[in-house]
Design goal:
4 helices, 4 strands
Length: 186
């Protein structure tokens, strides 16, 4: 009996019929999880890249503007952001123009406008520490964008807000003016 049992166990150990089925059943859930996780991570990185490019585009458009802008112009930038991102997630946009005062060694807020759930800056203090060093009287345009990202599949990614901050100098005009406001003095 002992010999027969030993023989049966030895034959069972050498038998590989059905091993592909067992391996498939064990590996298929892990493979499906890996595919969904890679899709989620790739989608998140792609969308973060799209948001950066949208922020750069809006900032570049503003840096080339020679005429004063108004509420309709900022509304159009918000629509452009939505078009470029092409996702139905909550988005926000804030555009601010600041001037560096060399005597006070500080930035002064010229104007700020926001769309979405963000507010315009009341003064330069919330953003001043993030701005680069500039010469006395230089004007900078700050474009900030936000988008609440939700992963398509929950594979280790949590909901997050994609935030971009872009500082640009005006290119073809000394400053970006708000319609009806006086220019910042140097």
């Amino acid at each position: 009996m002992k010999l027969r049992l030993k023989s049966l166990l030895h034959r069972f150990g050498r038998d590989n019929d059905g091993s592909y089925s067992v391996e498939s059943i064990l590996l298929l859930p892990m493979l499906a999880w890996a595919i969904l996780a890679m899709f989620s991570y790739f989608d998140g990185l792609r969308l973060a890249n799209v948001n950066i490019k949208a922020t750069h585009t809006i900032s570049d458009i503003l840096s080339r503007e020679t005429a004063p802008v108004n509420d309709s112009y900022i509304d159009g930038l918000e629509q452009l952001q939505a078009f470029l991102v092409n996702r139905n997630y909550d988005k926000s946009l804030r555009v601010s123009v600041l001037r560096f005062d060399g005597d006070a060694n500080a930035f002064d807020l010229v104007w700020s406008e926001a769309r979405g759930d963000k507010a315009a800056y009341p003064d330069a203090s919330p953003v001043a520490q993030h701005l680069p060093a500039t010469a006395d009287g230089d004007i900078v345009i700050v474009v900030e964008t936000w988008m609440d990202y939700r992963s398509a599949f929950v594979m280790g990614l949590t909901d997050t807000t994609l935030y971009n901050f872009m500082v640009t100098s005006p290119r073809f005009a000394p400053q970006l003016l708000w319609e009806g406001a006086a220019p910042a003095t140097t």
